[in-house]
What does this fold into?
Amino acid sequence: MSAWHVKGSYFEACNCEAICPCRWQGGRRLFTASSYGVCDFALSWHILAGRAGDTDLTGLDVVMAGTYADTQPWHVALYLDERADPEQFETLTNIFLGRAGGTVFKNFAKRIDEVYAVRRAKIMLDHTPRKWFMRAGDYVEVRAQEIVPSSLPVTCGIPGHDRMGEELRAEILRVNDAPLTFEVRGRCGYESDFDYRSEDGPG
It folds into this structure.
């Protein structure tokens, strides 16, 4: 695939207790296992600027839902903006499933073992502070307003530990796309920005 670069805003939630055990605090990871032995999650990206070769990805949205047991690989479903044309759809699939390598593969996609589905969906994202929201069709819904205070900086490996962000408490995390079916309330979330690129991507 051509050199690519996507950047924008990021919001996620999972079923762990805040502060999520996966986070780094003060530059190091303090825990090694999820709160309940299985992590159920939903991740969202709004691309403020993006391109892969001649394919413009600016303004498109991506959501991923998934699950994994501690030390086990991820099983996921990927939801892509229904506004994407066929070329954009294929490009986003390759980038966010790690098939295009680069930062996405290094940060998280290398953990993906099984992809249950790649679907077009009407995606609604709000990454405004204290109004965090994601929806992907009838499959995924997440809302958060509360910031969880920490005396140390908290970072997340998915946007990258070089990106500063805020730990959150999600009001609701709901995924209904069998075999991914779960709903929890009052668990952890995170907001940040992201900047992903291919190995030889533009600056």
